[in-house]
Amino acid sequence: MAEEIKKELPANFKVTIDNITIEVAPGTSILTAARQIGGDVTPPAMCYYSKLEGSGGKCRTCLVEVAAGSTADPRPMPKLVASCRTGVMDGMIVKNITSDKVTDARNGVVEFLLLNHPLDCPICDQAGECHLQDLGYDHGKEGTRYEFARRTFKKEDIGAYIQLHMTRCILCYRCTYIADQITEKRLHGIVDRGDHAAISTYISKAIDNDFSGNMIDVCPVGALTDKTFRFKNRVWFTKPVDAHRNCETPGCCGKATLWLRGDEVFRVTARKDQWGEVQSYDGKPGWICNTCRFDKKKTSDWQLDGLTSISRHSVIGANKYKVLDVPKETIRGVMSGRDPKLLMDIHNISEVNKPEVDLSELNRPANSGDFKHAIPTGEPDKTGDEEQNAGFLGRKN
């Protein structure tokens, strides 16, 4: 019976997102399917992280409209759904940027995220690579309708390497997931409830495990920042370079991005993909240990692999890379080295113009005096200058 059901199920599901149809494997979420298309079709995500199990479903920035549930049941879903938590069905039709409902809802979500978030981008180390900053530019409004005092928290020391700014936290839970899944013992979590909810450590505890620095990489805002990089430089003034080293710490991939200013290494981070998530190697996330991140701050400690690939739309990539490459000229190669501007010299083939006249080398428009007469007229050929003085081509006074 199970085999018969398995045979009836299609190998792949066809899903249409913003009028673009692709095939994905059963069990794929709408967000993952949209990422396969890429570009503006992909909904933003502040809490979902594909490398962390259980993430997603908290920030609601990835809401989409399902205009048709499936081929079997083409009815639309009554409300917007979180694309990171909703699986695709065969024949599903999804609207993201083509839906006014989604745009309006996303604007409202961003307004809620910014209710208590301090507007301290000029002094925040996350500025320039902050996902909330990008989201605010795309969907934020000029003002706020919030008239009450923003929530504030007492400063708390959670370790020697990580600075916690709880006023900037949007409670995406990424840092707690990463502590659960890649460290031996989690020492922090979410305390209190509702408007008082905050990230904190257990009483008199500090975060000091070997992979705690990865909490900085997964934080989408400036709530968790690198103390060793604090107020030292702006990210757009540094140059990201891929590098690797043979790290002996179990679980560390040894592949990182160095952020340089000249030859000085200002900080070390894990390598990230186009979605802002840590890259995978051999099917595993490329987490790095605290030794690589905080202790190896010299270029001599690393083997440099080359410039990090940064989107040209990112402020980090501004003025760092050469302009767009112009396609190589192939005409000269197929024409035995002849320059393209000489290709008008066709007299060897057409036998129309005079053999001693090269049309492409004329410093004036070609006229009848430069060509052979196909039908003899009995009149002598005029020189080019005489013909040019006579008026238009073939016209006589």
How would you sum up this structure in a few lines?
It is built from 10 helices and 15 strands.
CATH topology of the largest domain: Ubiquitin-like (UB roll)
Strand order of the largest sheet: 2-1-5-3-4
β-sheet strand percentage: 15-25%
Beta-strand segment tally: 15
Percentage of residues assigned to helices:
10-25%
Radius of gyration: 32 Å
- Low-pLDDT stretches are 381-397
CATH architecture of the largest domain: Roll
Indicate the CATH class of the largest domain.
Answer: Alpha Beta
> How can the largest sheet be summarized?
5 strands, mixed
Order of SSEs, N→C? HEEHEEEHHEHEEHEEEEEEHEHHH
Number of domains: 4
Counted by DSSP, the helix tally is: 10
Cα-to-Cα separation, first versus last residue: 97 Å
Q: What is the 3D form?
A: globular
* SS content category: alpha+beta
